[in-house]
Design a protein that fits this description.
Elements lengths: L8 H8 L5 E5 L5 H15 L6 E5 L2 H14 L8 E4 H12 L11 E3 L1 H14 L4 H17 L3 H7 L6 H17 L2 E3 H14 L1 H10 L2 E4 L7 H11 L5 E5 L14 H10 L2 E5 L7 H11 L21 E7 H17 L7 E5 L5 H10 L4 E4 L8 H14 L4 H7 L9 H14 L3 H6 L8 H23 L2 H12 L10 H23 L5 H11 L12 E5 L8 E7 L15 H15 L2 E15 L2 E4 L4 H5 L29 H13 L16 H4 L16 H12 L15 E4 L3 E11 L2 E7 L5 E5 L5 E5 L1
Parallel strand pairs: 1-7, 1-8, 2-3, 2-6, 4-5, 6-7, 9-14, 10-12, 10-13, 11-12, 13-14
Antiparallel strand pairs: 14-15, 16-17, 16-20, 17-18, 18-19
The structure holds adenosine-5'-triphosphate (ATP).
It binds a DNA duplex (15 and 10 nucleotides) through helix 4, helix 9, helix 18 and helix 23.
Amino acid sequence: MTKFDDLNSIQQEIVQNTEGAYLISAGAGSGKTRVLTNRVCYLIDKGVSPENILAITFTNKATKEMQERVTRMTDGKAFGLTIKTFHSFCAGILREFIYKFDGFDKNFSVYDDSNQKALLKKVINDLKVSDDIAKKCEYHISSAKNLGLDPDEYLKDNRYEPNIDTIVSVYREYQTQLKNNNALDFDDLLLKTLELFHDFPSILEYFQEKYKYIHVDEFQDTNLVQYKILYMLGIKYKNLFVVGDEDQCIYTWRGANITNIKMFIEDFKPKVYKLEQNYRSTKNIISRANLLIKNNISRIDKTLFTENDDGDEVSFKECYDEKEEAEYVANQVYILKSRGVDPREIGILMRISSLSRNIEEKLLNYNIPYVTSGIFKFFDRLEVKNVLAYLSMVVNPKDNANVIRIINVPKRGIGQTTIDKLESISRETGSPLTEIIENFRELDVSATIKNKIADFGNLIVKFNEEYKKKSMSDFAEFVINEAGLKDMYNSKSEEDLDRKLNIEQLISSIKDFEYENENATLIDYLESVTLQSSLEKKDDNEPSISISTIHASKGLEFDYVFLIGLEEGKFPLSRALDNADELEEERRLMYVGITRAKKKLYITRAKSRFLYGRREDTICSRFIEEMGIKVPKRQFGGFSSDYDDFVSNDYYSNNYKSNYNAHSNYSNGYSNNYGKSSFGNNLSKSNYSFDSSYSTKKQEFGGSSNNLNKLQSMNSKVSSSKKFDDFKVGVQVFHTKFGVGTIIKREDAEGNNYVSVDFGKIGVKTLSLNFAPLQILKK
DNA sequence: CCAATAACCTTTTTT
DNA sequence: AGGTTATTGG
Ligand SMILES: Nc1ncnc2c1ncn2[C@@H]1O[C@H](COP(=O)(O)OP(=O)(O)OP(=O)(O)O)[C@@H](O)[C@H]1O
């Protein structure tokens, strides 16, 4: 028996309409994903073979989630169902059929962003393109590819663009080198698939017959090439089921285009459904979201409503600086957790990932476990990329980029001059570098160099042999050991220990993959890694809160959401400020962030922020006022520190300066001699902008308790006052104004003693024991 | 010809 | 602050 979710009558009707084209244009949290999932199950329940069903999701995370849900709901009857992202769907097709294209074989590499950039840079170098033109190439190649235009077509469409000839020649050469390397970049996965369907009608027909029922989630973020693929696949049976929300289109910078929706309406004449009831969030959250998104001019008006409770008012907290912001967030999270909130229902979201660092440090401080997504890029780490390049070199020997990357890693005494020489031989003979290096005996170079190349060549030969014999994880370990990729990092420095840990982590990720995917090959692993870009976390970790970019939080939901860094220039980003379209996209992004919250939304900003090596005073984000949140008009400057919250949630209610010193003291490790006589006047650059010296360790996967210990020992160095000893964490107190509360935090600075008290409904107050009218009720 | 060091530049979001 | 490139020293 298929177990369907609860559905309202419209949702129900949508799910049971199985034939024909449908467009579900619906707001955030209205159940789009739920409807799509249930429809897939309904089809299976009705007897449609899962083999005939395709569901396209936006992220790998969403793929996994939907797969699990459908499997659970259908009692495992979903076997053979295809749920994939566009890119992995295309990659799968191309593994099978790329041999149809001259020069490619099934071992092709998929280039991620950094590989792509590296190749482009090399091409620019090869063609000796001047700097100013070079800067424009990336943009042009990417827009060409997003529109599905080859170099000639792009040239024709952009005849009047300055220097277009040079730009297009770079594009052309870039494609040539990709081909020589038997490699495809992300966009090529889509483009080559389209080309395949176009050039080989029998293959297209095969897939049209196979995927009689097609579903697409997050349709508003598809680009033209993706639409064309959908069109070709779906035009025969016209069973296309597409869901999306124009207000959540946040990937236009990657070519996403909502005119896809208009084209879909014209091409398929779908039945259109609108869902406007939100089942996720409280009334307060929804009304703020509605107020914000109304500020976008170029949008079809729709207003979300909900029958959920009013819930708590959205809270807005202006902090003094990024340290205090982090402290505030960590403290609030601590309170939520101590009230029994499931950590997995807490999310901290941000526009730019660089803001996460401070938050992570404070969370470590509080001993709050967290996972990050879209922030710590495991596969971008140099030591990890090096291992992958070695493996990729063996898998796809035609790819010169790998060889160039690792020929001198670890240092073998082979420098740029030698590499250039080898490369020119490769160009002239048309043989890949691996081949040339393996046949080092024929090289015309000095004896010393030849020896060095010989060592490397012999290594490659050995790898090629073992690759055939060993399992992929054994092979990876073999490569790491033989090439000395871990021995490179043998110093006792924290960085080196980290690097070695990452390499070990990589090995276990390969083992996991091996275990989870029977019959999978190293090719599959490498592909999944480039398509995922972040390390999948295992479930057996302790329940953690999430830190994420808003982009990466697409489609997710949390009971409690913190949106941090609401400052002009940061969110909205400065680049978007003078461009109406980009500004609207920022606003949509904010809208997505707000609508992730189910129960309560906390918004914060820092009045002064240290970022990119500079400290800057900030201006409150325009989105705050657009949401109808009143910002207290208080001048920045001096040490006045009472900033009222939108709700009465004044955190550091007393003099911030002394409080700040409290932080300085433990961040530093030992006390400084300011605080008494210099009260209120020494917030000079020097004692203000220092940073604690420990390195942040990301808790994306186990380990690194190291850091915690370090922080804990720092904490213990805080000088604790002998006075007010009874005001400990957990003690119940009475305040003349706020009533009964519980101490959740105690903090002592020179001469001042602070407690944070949770007064339940009233909120949390930080009070100075020296002044506050507090009495102990119960110890 | 290669490795280590010093100056320099650029900071968004991700399949 | 961090990564990349130009310069110098070996
Ligand atoms: N008919 C319903 N009854 C109760 N809960 C529902 C119903 N429909 C959806 N929900 C709940 O509402 C929340 C949002 O659903 P879902 O994630 O499918 O929305 P969505 O439209 O895809 O959201 P987004 O656009 O933000 O990705 C989920 O927690 C889901 O369980």
